[in-house]
Amino acid sequence: MKLYKLLVLLIIGFSSCEDNLLNLESLTEPVDDVFYKNEEELNLALNGAYNSLRLTTDYKVPLMVAMDNGATDIGVSRGLCSAMMNQGQGVQSPTNDGFLTIYSDHYKGIARANALLENMARSKDVVPEDKYKQIEAQALFVRAFHYMYLTELFGDVPFLNKVIKTPAEGLIPRESKEVIVEQILADLKKASEALPYSWKDEPERVTKGAAIGLYARIALYNARYAEAAAAAKEIMDNEPSFGYSLHKNYGELFQLAGQTSSEIMFVMPFKYEYFFTQFSVTQGSRNLGSVSVMVPTQSMIDSYECTDGETIDKSEVYSPKQPFENRDPRLKASIITPQSQWAGLIFESHPDSVNFRLVDGKIGGSNKDCRTVSWPAAFCGYLWKKNTIEETQKKIQSWDDHHFILMRYAEILLIYAESKIMLGEIDESVLNAINRIRARAYGAGVADTDQYPAVQTRDAAKLKTILRRERKVELADEGFRLFDIRRWKIAEKVMPVTIYGRILDTATATGVPRIDEDGLAHYQGIEQQYDLNKDDRFPNATRMFNPGRDYLCPIPQQEIDTYARFGVTLSQNAGY
């Protein structure tokens, strides 16, 4: 008797014993009711659940990055993920197919996890107990991961925790976010108790640390600060067991050399022969065959502190005539700035730069990264260096098999620090968590306070400002900014602004933007310095935000219409 087809989803398996990357080879769908009868079949189903975590948009770029560049203040996107671009412009609509894709992709992943969790009991008598619990734990993690994104993007959503055998069974009302969060946190706690600290030769699998880390993230996002701090502290207090540490070189972490770093806790795996990404094509230089459709904003550049630990409007070592000097090293580690060397060329985005030069000074060709051509590649004058692989750029290659980091140890330190600050429990451990990250940026030890601007204040308000700025620069272009500005309730301030480009004439520049307590740069009175986008604007260069509506995305209209055809009402978010 055929009970299901796993919602017509492919189960993806390992390709060989030599290559343990998850989800590489497409296998026949499990349609027989005797499937899930042994450990091998459970693992095949589990691999299909893992595959659902590879959430991408055009150019196979992780959706999280499209969120940062399309729907927040730190980046600009052109023609990549219409849902997030519309969100940034404030013109999002329930009828935008992009939201339907995002919504349905998460539910497809949930369906895969549910199918495994509901049917795996068939093999309980033949699978070793520890293996059985580990497979169950990984499926629980996958389901929790998808529900985290659904609830953060859409708020209350239908909560499906079993296999849906008929369309009518799936027509359930939206459940409150609080109820869903309560359940997925319980699931993650259960998962963490069964998972190992590491998997031999299988680094892409969920570990105990990843499960606890996701618990901490979800608790933080939902202002459950005591739980978030406790989860983060469990990892921090047991670093040797978990095996986590900060990678010594921040910039290297996002290049090929950092792929096996002990800072990485969980990844979205890519491999060219099976499922590759075009990260470097989306973010890289047009002079090297890329398209530069996601770029950082001037506001992002101005968020990086100076080497004295002050923001650019307060620092004595900042000058608009040399805007990239004496800055937090993460600026140049994350962003390709004008006149910097990258992949064999000297990057230049000034509109007068008709040609570009190679690092040896020779002319390399026509400069496609300046405003002399239609649709300027470097609209804001910069390119993301993070996850833009230099080796790929040098080869003028259209693909990467560079894994995307979904969770890393630096985030755990920031979760701990923020949670303790919000609880009013500020002690040396809070300062140490922040300073470890800041010290790493300078290549210094946390105790070497003469080599980096260490945070010393215990004033809660000041630490809150520092922590928010720290998350903005440390986690930029990794998919955190949209959820941060929403939960901090500052989106209505940071979003409705004009996106400015680089300083055009540094020789005459004198104005410095004011940086407020939320890290937002204010350009009133000095806009003329930043007019790279004066004539050629991206469609979403001017951002809008409606606080009565835009803190949540719209429930896709197609879902609402499907419910209605069966006489069931699915409610919409306010304002849509």
Report on the structure:
Helix content is 37%, strand content 8%. The chain is an alpha+beta fold and 576 residues long. Strand 10 and strand 11 (355-358) form a beta hairpin. Helix 2 runs parallel beside helix 3, helix 6 (177-194) packs antiparallel against helix 7 (208-221) and helix 14 runs antiparallel to helix 15 (428-441). The radius of gyration is 24 Å and the shape is globular. It starts with 10 loop residues before the first strand and ends in an 11-residue tail after the last helix.
Fraction in helix: 25-40%
Shape: globular
Instruction: Please tell me how large the radius of gyration is.
Output: 24 Å
Average residue-wise pLDDT: 90
Number of helical elements: 19
Largest sheet: 4 strands, antiparallel
Q: Quote the beta fraction.
A: 5-15%
Structural class by helix and strand composition: alpha+beta
Number of strands: 16
Low-confidence stretches: 1-29
Going across the biggest sheet, name each strand in turn.
9-10-11-12
Termini separation (Å)? 44 Å
TL;DR?
With 576 residues, this protein is α+β, with helices and mostly antiparallel strands. It has 19 helices and 16 strands. Helix 5 (129-154) packs parallel to helix 7, helix 8 (225-237) packs across helix 14 and helix 14 (409-423) runs antiparallel to helix 15 (428-441).
What's the layout of helices and strands?
Elements: E1 11-13, E2 25-27, H1 39-51, H2 63-71, E3 75-77, H3 82-89, H4 97-119, H5 129-154, E4 157-158, E5 174-175, H6 177-194, H7 208-221, H8 225-237, H9 239-242, E6 264-268, H10 279-283, E7 294-296, H11 298-301, H12 330-334, E8 335-336, E9 341-342, E10 345-346, E11 355-358, E12 363-366, E13 383-384, H13 390-395, E14 404-408, H14 409-423, H15 428-441, H16 460-474, H17 481-487, H18 491-494, E15 514-515, E16 521-522, H19 557-565
Helix pairs in contact: 1-4, 1-5, 2-3, 4-5, 5-6, 5-7, 6-7, 7-8, 7-14, 8-14, 14-15, 14-16
